Olfactory receptor family 13 subfamily G member 1 (Sus scrofa), 307 residues
Amino acid sequence: MNNSIVTEFMIMGITQKPELQRVLFFVFLFIYLVAFLGNMLIVIAIIYNTTLHMPMYVLLLALAIVDIICTTSIIPKILETMLTSRKTISYGGCMSQLFFFTWSLGAEMVLFTTMAYDRYVAICFPLRYIAIMNRYMCVALLSIVMAIAVTNSWVHTGLILRLTFCGSNIIDHFFCEIPPLLALSCSPVRINEVMVYVADISLAIGDFILTCISYSFIIVAILRIHTTEGKRKAFSTCSSHLIVVSLYYSPVIYTYIRPASSYTFERDKVVAALYTLVTPTLNPIVYSFRNKDMQAGIRKVFALLKR
């Protein structure tokens, strides 16, 4: 039940300095275009190339879609607040943004773990890979990802909807995120904080540990490769993936493991930008554009566009 008196929120944004806002507008626009077009290119390449209809690329397709939803739910509103004098977002718009952001947050974390498991099976059990990662397994894994993401999003959004906002309506952030909303609530937020801790421990910390375990087995398998070139390529791939995963999990864990009373925008704005802007932009480069099969698939897309 919505007991809120506040009908709209004012988003403070990145900075109040006009000269910096103009610069940041183009920076955020560039980031959004790179993230959106890069991930959209991956989606089109995988859909239209039957050679990429394999478990690894199906998971990449899902990750690209999640990244598109994540950036689209946040950046266009940021650009609007920078370009116009209108700094507000409706209560319903704020809750919708929160829902889609928390959905993409949960989906991305579980997808990272699923992708690490896929690579574990491919490297540690190459002869059994097709049998293990069959179509039914892919559907089951993606269904689990969706179920966890939707449950996570509904729980947090539903708990926020129960809060009363009767005081300040100024969100000291560049989008509607859980910590700044809890800081504005006139209602007790203990249940919200407990559920945030549960989600952070089970999703962020839990998935990060599972991902690291998968890569530990992968590294052990790589060390058994006899050729130096083979080890170098395998380690290069694993290190790139782990860097992106660490860039994503570390700020998420930092942001959500603390009580709402300790939240400060000045300290947390860069941290939030890492998992909302940087990681969705890096994912296409790290996970796809360095892959020869994906490169071939992307070239086919450009070849079709030239016709």
The chain has a mean pLDDT of 83. The domain at 8-306 is CATH 1.20.1070.10 (Rhopdopsin 7-helix transmembrane proteins).
